[in-house]
Amino acid sequence: MAEKKFERNLLCIGAGYVGGPTMAMIAHKCPQYKVTVVDVMAEKIAAWQTDDLPIYEPGLLELVKSCRGKNLFFSTDVEKGIKESEVIFISVNTPTKTFGEGAGKSADLQYWEKTARDILRVSESDKIIVERSTLPVKTAIAMERILSLNEKGLNFEVVSNPEFLAEGTAIRDLEKPDRVLIGSKETESGLKARQAIVDIYANWIPKSNLITSNQMSSELSKLVANSFLAQRISSINSISALCEKVDADVREVANAIGKDSRIGDKFLNASVGFGGSCFKKDILNLVYLCETYGLQDVAEYWEGIVKINDYQSTRFVQTIMKAMFNTITNKRIALFGFAFKANTSDTRETAALSVTKKLMMEKAHVVISDPKAIKNAKNDLKDYGDDIEYEEDPYKAAKGAHAIAIATEWDLYKTLDYEKLYHDMEKPAFIFDGRNILDHEKLFEIGFEVHPIGRPPLIHFKEN
Ligand code: NAD
Ligand code: UGA
User: How many C-beta atoms surround the C-beta of residue 446 within 10 A?
Assistant: First the structure.
């Protein structure tokens, strides 16, 4: 049978949380394109070809299955992919640098640069390169510079097209994004490349949601969007500390301020702290950029968001310590949730990790429970060996425990039988609700000592 002819060949380098879902959505919405996703990790590519995908994301498996093998392909053959594609999306990881100049703040661009060099070495025709990874401002220009060094007479246009999906809601975010941002050079060839990317998204996204700009505005907007989102969480978390001192309720404060349409009601849930692979990394990237350009005061302003986030998880453990009579040594503490948010197995930069480490420093007996993230938790905490227990079933995790600490807002934890949990725990039985998702008054009635975030605790045993 002759091979099916497609209108365009699209390639994505990097089959992770962004590359996999984004390309699955493009393939699903655009059967006229051949979409290939490549990665250097053979086991990841193998998993994308099964029903046990390498990442957990609601709705992803159905989406992948709708087009896999038809116009969506996964492969380790990066070179072949580059050769046969006109448009190359790059969604490789860009973690915070851990060594050398800019360590701890700037983005580590080694994976990014490697893809640029692969493209340069292998290409036999002109290409549009699409930045999907989150990158420092002016990376597109630097990349174009590297690519223009070719002696083959080829033309490469680099377009910035940052991703704004959130994990756990990735499929909805990709299907109905608030906006898609496409930044290109404003030359004739740059604008042509911009239009080619607009045309891909216009297959399912209204034109009014497709925003175009120059490359630098697009790159900077991604860092700024994440920094603003994280800023809201650190703002409300900082206020949660004050609420606990003055007997105010942070949920009531959030509700009251959120009704002001200029403020808005989203992203005002006080918590044990934000996690995820990007917020901290992207803020630090912004901080580094400001420092690079001599904007020290601006850098310090944004760095404060990360400081408050660290403060919040430290404060959470201090509350546990203080409530439990200043010692948790050998006490069984069931940590409910390890993923950085609900509906994902991702544990990168999860607040639960810093909480666990602090509890371990106090020699607590930590039992980690999570419906999807146990495998990643075990990997993150492998240095502790058998000192940490893992138990998917929350009832088993809490059996004989002195305390439950909620670290992730999984729906599952809202509907547990807390009477049963209380019955099976040591007394006094403590609950530290790091997500404010439980019915605190009801828990108090059951007999728990209840410590929410940003609300006065509900305690039976009051000190004189
Ligand atoms: P990830 O670690 O899940 O995936 C990146 C993949 O790239 C890995 O599988 C890695 O093996 C692969 N890779 C690295 N170098 C390669 C190379 N030279 N050739 C082929 N494959 C290579 O990362 P992610 O979470 O998908 O994030 C990717 C980028 O997108 C980052 O810049 C991140 O900041 C940004 N981003 C992430 C999210 C998110 O929700 N995770 C959202 C928006 C933007
Ligand atoms: C975030 C952004 O929301 C995405 O737009 C962006 O594309 C992405 O980062 C990225 O660049 O990687 P994500 O980290 O997947 O998405 O998830 P969020 O829903 O933003 O949650 C981040 C963290 O903040 C989680 O730990 C969450 O529990 C916490 N959070 C969120 C709060 O503590 N309170 C809130 O009110 C909201």
Answer: 17
Residue 425's contacts (CB-CB under 8 Å, 6 or more residues apart) are 398, 399, 400, 401, 402, 404
Ligand 2 pocket check: which of 165, 239, 348, 411 to mutate, most ligand atoms within 8 Å of Cβ? 165
pLDDT band, very low/low/confident/very high, at 2 (cuts 50, 70, 90): low
Residue 184 near residue 215, CB atoms below 8 Å: yes
Q: Taking the model in full, what pTM does it have?
A: 0.96
Pairing of strands 72-75, 87-90: unpaired
* Omega cis (within 30) before 428: yes
Q: How far apart are CA 449 and CA 442, in angstroms?
A: 11
Tokens of 174: 């990709």
pLDDT of residue 212: 98
HSE value, Cβ hemisphere, 13 Å, CA-based, for 142: 12
* Distances from the Cα of 175 to the Cα of 31, 74, 160, 201, 315, angstroms: 15, 21, 20, 10, 38
How far apart are alpha carbons 335 and 152 in whole angstroms?
58
Give nearest CA residue, ligand 2 atom 7: 164
